[in-house]
Amino acid sequence: MEIGKRIRAYRKIYNLSQEQLAEKIFVSRQTVSNWENNKTYPDIQIIVSLSILFNVSLDELIREDLEEMKMKISNNKANKRADIYSLIMICSTILASLSIGLVLALPESKFIWIVPVTLFLPALWSSFVLEKFKRNNDLKTYKEILAFSQNKDLEVLRKKRDPRRTRIEKGIIVLAYAGLTLLICLMAIFIANFFK
Fold first, then answer.
1. Could you report the per-residue pLDDT of 126-138, keeping only the tens digit for each?
2. Which 3 state secondary structure label does DSSP give 155?
3. Burial of 182 (C-beta count, 10 Å sphere; 0-12/13-18/19+)
4. CA distance 66 to 151
5. Residue 26 belongs to what H/E stretch?
6. Which of 6, 72, 82, 120 is the 20 to 30 Å CA partner of 89?
């Protein structure tokens, strides 16, 4: 992505420090540093603010990045990889939950708890990998920028990006996932008790 280089270049043309730029557009200095080092990408409101501040067109700021954004959004290989990590997470959790029945069926074994813990580790690892993938590929921001550049309505995308709504959705997903895991554990316990 080229926007980090452009922000740095325009900031230097206007003789602004990262802190001064951050104050002008109401973000932290660390945020500006992250943009300039291509760790994160500014959202569409910030890009508009930067274009006004630097007196350049939006096209001039993001033109070279648009094709890369399109490729990242439609990158089937990356999406398939994310799907594989999701599948690993789900399968690992199901197997770990089912192994609880094994633990209950063999209570005399001291090391039997190693089985569900070991089966759950890939789920934990996959969840961290997925979060890193989401953070590194800021697809929501890219979708908004592409929609804006194509004169599409951003309100639909912004509603999906509402932080409160996102937290609620994530909470519901976590609760549903935990509920499903608990249900599988209870089924495993029932099956273990049934065959005793």
1. 888 887 777 666 6
2. helix
3. exposed
4. 14
5. none
6. 72
